[in-house]
Amino acid sequence: MLGSRFIDAVCIAALACAILLTGGLYAAGGAGIITPARDDDYLDLLFQQNRVHSIDIQIDDWDAFLATATTESYSRCDVAIDGETFTGVGLRAKGNNSLGHIAERGLSRYSLKIEFDHYEAGLTYHGLDKLSLDAAFQDNSYLKTYLALDMMRFMGVPTPATSFVQVSVNGEAWGLFLAIEEPEDAFAERVWGEGHGMLYKPDYRSLDDENADVALRYVNDDPASYSGIFESARFDATAVDEKRVVDALKALATGERDEIERSVDVDEVLRYFAVQTFVANLDSYLGSTGHNYFLYEEDGRLAMLPWDYNLAFGTYALGRAELPDDASAYVNLPIDTPAAPEVLAERPLFTNLMAHDDYRERYHGYLDELVQDYVESGRLQTTVRQAEELIAPYVAEDPTAFISFEEFQFGVDTLEAFCLLRAQSIRGQLDGHIPSTLEGQTAAPDELVDASSIRIEDMGELSDLE
C-alpha cells in the first residue's frame, strides 16, 4: 500500500504538470500555434440560407423612433431572433440618401442597424456584435445586394454573411428585409482571426468636396488630411495605425509595381474589382461618389471589401441627367474603363493596378472565371430563382413594400436578364469581339450587345416610392 507522503508527492507533481500545460497552451494560443475557441455560432443560426428567419423588435414607442429616424440615433429595445430574445440592444435607422428620400415621401420603411453591445458591454447574438437590416430601397427584386455579395463570396472576397428575415415590431408584421453581418469585431475575427488588422469605412463629407482620401489618393503625410478614412475606423486607431495607411497610399501613388505589391493585397483587390465591374455599380469606388466599400489594412497592405449594392446593375443612373439611363450602356460597361475618364483619373487603386499588363491580365482572368463558373454554368440563374421562390410569399404579404408583387416579379426577371446580357458582353470583351474601353465602344457601337429587351427601371427607381 502506497504511503501518504508518496501520494502527496504524486499529486503535487501532477498539479505542477497541469499548471505548466495550461501555461503552454495559453502561450501557444497567443502565438497563433493553437487557435482559441471563438463563438461564431450565429453563422449556423441567423445566416442559414434555406429559410426566412424572424426578428421581432420589441420597443416601447415605435412611433417616436420613426419620428427621429433621420437623426440615426440609437434607441434601446429588445429583439427576438427566431424566438430567442435579447434584452437591451441598440436600434437605429441607417442609410445615406435613402433616409431623406423615405422621410420626404412620408414613408417609414427604413433600413436598420441592430447593435447588440451598444448598451450592454459584451452582449452578442451568439458572437455577432452588429447586424444590418436592408430594406430593399430602389430594389424591386429584393435581390440586388444579396446577389452581388454572393458573387463576391464566390470569387473569394471577404464578404459579410446574409439571410432573409421577416421583421415585425411588437408582434406586428413590418416587412421582408435582408440581414447582413456588419463588418466589425465578429466579422474581422471570423475572417482574419484575433490578430486581425484595422478596418475602415471611408465616406465623403459632401459630394462638393474633393474627397481625395475616400478616393484613396495620397495627399500628404499628415493623418488629419484623411479624416474621411480615419473618422470611420471600426476599431480604435492609433497614430501608428494611421501612419501605415498613409504610407500605403503614398506607395500606391507611385504606380511602381514593387511599391504596389508592398502596399496592396493585389490578388484580393483584383477579385473585388472583377465583381464590382460585373455588377455595374456606380454608387461605389468606381463611381462619382467614391464610397460604399470597406478598407482593410494589415501590416501596411490594403484590401477592399464589398458593401451596399441596392443601386448596382446600372440603376444608380436613373434620374441622373449626367448619366445614360439605358440598359445597353451598363450591359456593355467596358471592363477596362468601367467609369468616366475623370473618375478613373482619381481612383489610383484601380488605375495604377491596370497600368501593369500582368495585373490587367489577372483581372481579366477573374472576370472570365466569374462569367464562366458563376453565370454560364447556371449558378446565377439557380441562385436567383431559389431566392425568389424562398421570399415570394413574404414579398406578397409585405405590409411596407415599396412596390407591388407584380413589380417584384418584373424586378427579378430583369435582374436575371441583365446579368445574362452582361456576361455575354464581358465574354465578347474578353475574346476581343467587343471593345473593352469607352473609346473603342464609342467608335464601334454596332459591336455591342443589344439590351433593348429590358428596362433597368424595372429593377427599381425613385418614382416607385411615390
UniProtKB/TrEMBL annotation:
<dbReference type="InterPro" id="IPR014867">
    <property type="entry name" value="Spore_coat_CotH_CotH2/3/7"/>
</dbReference>
<dbReference type="Pfam" id="PF08757">
    <property type="entry name" value="CotH"/>
</dbReference>
<protein>
    <recommendedName>
        <fullName>Spore coat protein CotH</fullName>
    </recommendedName>
</protein>
